[in-house]
Amino acid sequence: MNNTTKGSTSKIGILGGTFNPVHLGHLILAQNAIERYELSRILFVPCANPPHKDNSSLLSATHRIAMLQAATEDDPRFEISDVETARKGPSYTVDTISELKAAYPDASFYFIIGSDTLTELHLWKDIYRLLTMCTFITFSRYGFDVRTITPESLHLDAPWPERLLKEAATLHMIDISSSEIRHRVAEGMSIRYLVPQAVGMYITEHHLYGG
Q1: Rounded to whole angstroms, how far apart are CA atoms 90 and 1?
Q2: Which residues contact 118 (CB under 8 A, 6 or more apart)?
Q3: pLDDT score recorded for residue 1
Q4: Which of 78, 108, 93 is nearest to 1 (CA)?
Q5: What is the pLDDT of residue 6?
Q6: Cis amide linkage into residue 196, ω under 30° from 0
Q7: pTM
Q8: What's the average pLDDT block by block, 10 residues per block, for the chain (211 residues)?
Q9: Can you say how many angstroms the Cα of residue 197 is from the centroid of all Cα atoms in its chain?
Q10: What is the pLDDT, as a whole number, of residue 141?
């Protein structure tokens, strides 16, 4: 795991989330970002306490990081950062990027989001400061085609709506969600082909999600 203590002269993609659990959709999204934007690597950043989500079903950071390690260990382009789980309090992206910029002063950061998140950015803490700190790259999620999003729907001052939409792409849209996986495990249904085999084994071995 990366402990965010070294510098870098690279283009780094940041993929944050609960990863509860990590699934193949996350990995495909990361690969799409690397290929389309010529990134050197992806930092997976599991959040500690997301301020805009229901945390009642959130596993411990220990389990979520272990599953991320199992999912990414054979791909040198993928790393895990504990920048948020090691920090107390809510996980605000502006604080995370500030910490990563201090740790990697020569790197350019590309924050990866789904199209369903794009229309919510105006609600994020210190969003205008955050927009100057990294480049947001948006990928269409299943059911949220980025091509249907208008600048007006982003509720941000110019020139940010146009800049954000310019960095949006429609590539592989994978209809997989962590909530679906949790439900299938709880119901005794198979999650094969939805998560990496190592993640499925970890869930079974540790009796996670009511399985």
Answers
A1: 21
A2: 136, 138, 146, 149, 154, 164, 168
A3: 54
A4: 78
A5: 47
A6: no
A7: 0.91
A8: 53 97 96 95 90 76 97 97 89 94 96 94 97 96 85 97 93 86 98 98 96 74
A9: 20
A10: 81
d(CA 44, CA 84): 11
Position 52 scores a pLDDT of 62
What is the per-residue pLDDT for 7?
44
Rounded Cα gap, residues 135 and 58, in angstroms: 28
Distance in Å from the first CA to the final CA of the chain: 27
C-beta atoms surrounding 114 within 10 Å: 17
Report the distance separating Cα 65 and Cα 52, nearest Å: 21
User: Domains of the chain by range and CATH?
Assistant: 11-206 (3.40.50.620)
Q: How far is CA 8 from CA 87, 100, 101, 103, 120, in A?
A: 22, 11, 10, 8, 30
Contact criterion met (CB below 8 Å) for 91 and 51 = yes
Structure tokens at 209: 């999600």
Q: Give the whole-angstrom CA distance, residue 181 versus residue 159.
A: 39
Q: What is the DSSP string of 158-184?
A: TTHHHHHHHTEE--------HHHHHHH
For residue 5, the model assigns a pLDDT of 41
For the chain, the C-alpha Rg in angstroms (whole number) is 17
69 Cβ neighbours under 8 A, 6+ residues apart: 1, 80
